[in-house]
Q: What sequence folds into this?
């Protein structure tokens, strides 16, 4: 589906340019559109900001009838509808907060649609006033019989073009964002067996994918290059986004000092830019918002978003953020899915997210317009307990991790650098970040690939034997030597239940005891960034991406990349 030309190819491109004012397709967009037009079931994994919406909005315009989009959040739906209406596309929403009258109106328009004779599968006339896209929350499918039977009429009239499931990883309990109502979407295939399904996600590790396929009752996946094969067409775009510059910075110990650091950072690098500061608790969001505003003497215009903020205020905040009244939103993860704002120039993490995938999603809200943006994690050792998933790896990542470890433990340094070269594109100097703009002699660059894997290996070995590893312990381990290899007996230190059977050789002297001496906190920050870098690369089962993670410690910067 990626290369071929189809009868609709010209029309797709024309509509993309005239309706959406987008010049060219990006990533696998065209392929997904083609598979959609061809009536296939599809799973498409594309990074946040990659442009998933276009993959169904464009075919929706070309097909007769209505495309049903299931989306988890009202704010996301509202943004999409506003966006579509701006382009003159007829889109409606049915959510828990849709009024009775509105629902009735939509129902009768849908029924009208169902009554209209099917004019064939391909309609290249002008956009008709019929509803082209209907957005619903998953509860509508799970709980509203009125809705599902109305939909049945539309289906019977051949007027339901396809069903799109946005944020489809929410169907799986193995993912980080499980939603019970999503699980109930399994009835879709039963109720409407002939309507093609498009499942979209930015994060779908192999186990989640498997779960998703089973839950949605889709056929096993086949590659997007196998258009003739039976099965669900699978597209996955690289998750590496080269405009995002990741950093882990040491977090000062007092709350005031954290605010001061963040304020200075924002004023120095991002004055007047839009950004998000993710905090762990509702209270933190309020304190940070107030702090940034006070410390900057009102120069940073902040807003607060968390689950307890009233719906009306949430909506108002969205508006103020979009029109620039509010520049920096201090939020919990409740501010998430589907923030359709392209020019988010920075995402700061006041505290580490609960999982790596969560971190990836949250930081991924920066730079959706493709311009350079910063993602900074403020890290301090006290946060280490929350990082256990980083250290131990998530259940999902472990098989993959084991495979990688096996690979690395047998690989010679030659094959390791060959591995690196294959991905050299991802490591090209960006020319914008601190590392690339500093004079080269002031930057320390280290290849810590092997070291990072060794750390993970030690951790894995100890964990497997029932021990527990904290980041602090790892940092001590790393700092404990000045150059050269050393052995570590596993068993999880004092807390370990038993002695590890294996002895793991580490050669981390280069990092912490070589030319650059690191303090304990800096070492921990370094470890965090190494672990993050590796998890982000490896748990997202894509081959062509890598994330640049930098650890800045005083004047020294480490570039953490494969080579
Ligand atoms: P996702 O849902 O994958 O996170 P969106 O569909 O919201 O991403 O798209 C992110 C942004 O990229 C939107 O502003 C959209 O208009 C823009 N966009 C999508 N496709 C393209 C493209 N091919 N070229 C340029 N911009 C695009």
A:
């Amino acid at each position: 589906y990626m290369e071929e030309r189809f009868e609709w190819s010209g029309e797709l491109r024309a509509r993309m340019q005239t309706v959406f004012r987008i010049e060219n397709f990006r990533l696998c967009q065209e392929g997904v559109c083609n598979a959609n037009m061809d009536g296939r079931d599809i799973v498409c994994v594309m990074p946040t900001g990659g442009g998933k919406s276009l993959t169904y909005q464009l075919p929706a315009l070309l097909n007769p009838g209505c495309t049903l989009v299931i989306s988890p959040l009202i704010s996301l739906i509202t943004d999409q509808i506003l966006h579509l209406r701006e382009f003159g596309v007829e889109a409606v929403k049915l959510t828990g907060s849709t009024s009775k009258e509105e629902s009735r109106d939509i129902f009768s328009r849908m029924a009208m649609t169902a009554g209209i004779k099917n004019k064939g599968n391909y309609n290249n006339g002008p956009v008709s006033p019929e509803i082209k896209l209907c957005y619903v929350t998953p509860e509508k499918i799970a709980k509203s019989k009125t809705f599902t039977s109305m939909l049945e009429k539309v289906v019977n009239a051949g007027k339901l073009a396809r069903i799109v499931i946005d944020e489809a990883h929410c169907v799986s309990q193995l993912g980080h964002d499980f939603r019970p109502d999503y699980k109930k979407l399994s009835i879709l295939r039963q109720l409407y067996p002939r309507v093609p399904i498009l499942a979209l996600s930015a994060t779908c590790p192999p186990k989640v994918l498997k779960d998703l396929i089973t839950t949605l009752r889709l056929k096993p996946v086949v590659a997007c290059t196998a258009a003739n094969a039976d099965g669900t067409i699978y597209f996955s775009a690289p998750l590496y986004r080269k405009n995002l510059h990741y950093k882990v910075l040491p977090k000062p110990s007092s709350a005031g000092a954290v605010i001061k650091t963040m304020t200075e950072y924002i004023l120095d690098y991002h004055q007047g830019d839009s950004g998000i500061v993710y905090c762990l608790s509702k209270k933190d969001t309020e304190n940070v918002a107030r702090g940034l505003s006070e410390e900057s003497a009102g120069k940073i215009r902040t807003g607060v978003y968390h689950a307890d903020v009233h719906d009306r205020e949430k909506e108002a905040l969205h508006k103020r953020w979009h029109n620039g009244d509010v520049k920096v939103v201090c939020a919990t993860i409740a501010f998430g899915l589907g923030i359709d704002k392209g020019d988010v120039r920075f995402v700061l993490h006041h505290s580490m997210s609960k999982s790596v995938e969560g971190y990836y999603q949250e930081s991924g809200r920066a730079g959706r317009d493709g311009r350079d943006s910063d993602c900074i994690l403020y890290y301090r050792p006290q946060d280490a307990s929350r990082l256990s998933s980083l250290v131990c790896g998530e259940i999902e990542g472990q098989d993959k991790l084991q495979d990688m470890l096996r690979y690395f433990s047998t690989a010679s340094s030659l094959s390791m650098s060959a591995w690196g070269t294959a991905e050299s594109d991802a490591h090209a100097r960006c020319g914008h970040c601190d590392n690339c703009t500093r004079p080269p002699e002031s930057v320390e660059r280290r290849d810590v690939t092997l070291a990072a894997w060794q750390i993970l290996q030690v951790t894995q070995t100890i964990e497997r034997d029932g021990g527990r590893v904290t980041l602090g312990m790892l940092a001590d381990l790393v700092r404990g030597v000045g150059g050269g290899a050393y052995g570590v007996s596993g068993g999880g230190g004092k807390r370990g239940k038993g002695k590890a059977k294996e002895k793991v050789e580490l050669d981390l002297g280069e990092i912490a005891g070589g030319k650059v001496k690191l303090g304990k906190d800096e070492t921990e920050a370094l470890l965090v960034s190494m672990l993050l870098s590796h998890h982000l690369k490896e748990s997202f089962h894509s081959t062509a991406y890598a994330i640049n993670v930098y650890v800045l410690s005083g004047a020294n910067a480490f570039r953490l990349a494969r080579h």
